Amino acid sequence: MTKLLTRDTDNNGITTLTLNEPDQRNSLSMAMLDALSEALTDIATDDTTRVVVLGAAGNVFCAGHNLKEIRDQLDSYEFQLALFDKCSKVMQQVVNLPKPVIARVAGVATAAGCQLVASCDLAVAADSARFATPGVNIGLFCSTPMVALSRNVSRKHAMEMLLTGEMISAARAEQIGLINRVVDESMLDETVYTMARTIAGKSGHTLKIGKGAFYQQLEMPLAEAYDYTAQIMADNLQADDAREGICAFLEKRKPEWTDS
Question: Which of 70, 237, 241, 253 is the most buried (most CB within 10 A)?
Answer without folding.
Answer: 241
